[in-house]
Amino acid sequence: MRPALQITAAFILLAISGMAQDISPKEADSLSGALNRAIPVKDRISALLQLAEYNVHQRKAGESLLKEAGDYLHEAEQLSSRTPYPWFTEQRLIIQAVLSKVRGDTSDGKSTLQKAIGLLQSTPNKALLGKAYYEMSEFYSGSFLHATMLERIRYLQLAIAAFQQTDHLVELARCYRFMADLHQMLNDNRSAFSEVRTALKYYDQAGYSDKQGAVSLLGRIYYEGGDYQQALKNELLALRIATGSSQDNVSLICQINNNIGYTYLKLDEPEKALQYFQNALTIAELEKDTATVYLLAANVVDAYIGMNAPAKAVRLFRDIIRRNPQPVSLIYEGGDYGISHTWLKIYIALGQYEKARVYCDYLIKQAANPNINLYTLTLYYQLIAKFYTRTGDHEKARYYLNKDKELVTSLRSFSGMAHNYRLWFSLDSADGKYQEAIADLINENVAKDSILDETKSRQIAQLEIEFETEKKENQISLLNQKAMLEETRLKQANVMRNVTIGGILLSLIIAGLLYRQSSLRKKYNVLTTHKNELLQDLLQEKEWLLKEVHHRVKNNLHTVMGLLRSQARFLEDDALKAIEASEHRIYTMSLIHQRLYQSDNIGDIDTRIYLKELTGYLSESFGAPSNIRLRVMVDDVKLKLPQAIPLGLIINEAITNAFKYAFPDKRNGQIMLELRMDGEYIKTTIADDGIGMPSVDIARPSQSLGLSLMRGLTGDLEGDIRFENNAGTRITVTFPFA
Predict the structure, then answer these.
(1) What local confidence, expressed as pLDDT, does residue 525 receive?
(2) Percent of the chain scored above 70 by pLDDT?
(3) How far does CA 168 lie from the centroid of its chain?
(4) What are phi and psi of 104, to 5 degrees?
(5) Residues 287, 292, 298, 301, Cα dihedral to 10°
(6) Which SS3 state, helix, strand or coil, does residue 682 take?
(7) What sign does the dihedral 487-493-494-496 (CA atoms) show?
(8) How many Å is the Cα radius of gyration of the chain?
(9) Which helix (H) or strand (E) holds 629?
(10) Taking a C-beta distance cutoff of 8 angstroms, is the pair 138, 175 a contact?
(11) Domain-by-domain residue ranges, the chain?
(12) Does 3.30.565.10 match the CATH number of domain 604-736?
């Protein structure tokens, strides 16, 4: 999640990576009760070790819990000196190492854990060895420097190699999940995608339901690849699992809400994003996690700015500062927890550039930090360039945009490249370099296409891996069948030597072959079912790609509207009016593609929703005049694309003319839009009670472009259009429902 989401995930929320203990809170209470009764010594040692491990892995392990864990270990050690307990020394060393780490003595903890690993390496207890390697990896979980993360991956790989020799599938799944987490932070999304899928496979094989962390991580990887629909699907599933689990998932639920918020921002739905950001912020404040509070507050501000409500962003951020003390330290890799860049965003959005300058200077200083997270650095460069573009210092803006371009290119961050080109477009437009601005928009769309291409390539590669695996398994099955047939022939030869014994063996062989044939039939049925499911997945991907096409068309139409607005600044009178009319027509078409992209049924347009949005836009574009009342009455009708676009354009022309000409001198009146089903026809009426329009000769083309358009579009609908002057203007379009 680049860039702000990466800050939250990397520095605060992903610090919850401890391997879950093997017992639940209820089981811990049961073990504590057992210690108050007379039980066998070995059972008591086992309970003491489990409770000590449970305590040291608690998310909020205070000193009382840690002292209790130490007491458990001490009593267990005394008992084991009199009654030998298998693998006691190695288990005690692992728990003691974790206890030292939690108390802040990482040097003693590492040394103790190395002793345990040394004792276990030459033994057959691979489960305990895997656990020791995993706990060693956790000693590197608090730092996100490149070398540190690679060292943690090394220990996780050793843990996986050990666990793969056991039946500890849940522990194996967790190791794959955390390794995928690290590869995702290192921008190796291909490895991360394969590893998290492997983790989910082992969770499923173990029948383990608390897999919310892995599902959420899969959502983050889809987000990185630009597949926001799949990202949202997985994050919502992770939230449902986490909230229904008995585990202590508070920090993870906070993270998942944040992930969902950022996904909704990418889907241009800031209102929904705000809801989830606020959920995450509430959790962080209840947990009194000040650092996370400020990182999440920055995301809430992004949502308000996306809603064009910077004043609300100011109130929210000031309220956060009033309720929560600001962190006095700095994030080693990322500065002041997003406080400065958040203020810079707010003041740029408000146009208060003198106030913004202080925070811009601070970000320039922080950009020189050699340990800064590179995705954080791209955020800084882009904000600094945006500030200088807005304040007219275009030379500095170009300097920082060039630095950002070099960085996002080296990171292969296609979303970063797309945003960089969007900023270049603003700068080149401000400089009057319109050819360069058009090239910037084209390059932005190329970068967005690259996101989709990379996502599809990764998914295809994963399907190829799964196909090859299945192919090898089938080959092994065929070899086994051949071996069985050879064995059958040998048995038949033995049958010929001894009639009595041979008859019995022959019966057994026939029964075995029949059973084998039945098993093969079942396997082939499973294979057929799997192929059908694969075809269904491909069909869903085809539908998703078609929706993506409509999304791209909508984006391109918005790009054209942006160019028209840029040109309109230099025009006036009739030329300006023509540009504005063209902008309305383009927006009418873009709404169609937006509805298709957001709809589950990509073939139909819901006219009630579409016409409500269209008329609302037209009213707002004329300043929502208080003297004109707009009434919309539409039946529940679903139209196909070939009918929806001409009808939308006709309504656009009619309502635009009514707003412009029907009510001069701000006289009061109303505009009415009505769409009704009339048998096999659709009847659409646009009427106003204004001053009326000049008499229209239907048989003769009008000199008005708008009226000519309406006639031509009605012909596309194979319908009929009528113009009436009766206490205002009434336009009626009737066409057959397709």
Answers:
(1) 72
(2) 78
(3) 30
(4) 100, 0
(5) -10
(6) strand
(7) positive
(8) 34
(9) strand 628-634
(10) no
(11) 604-736
(12) yes
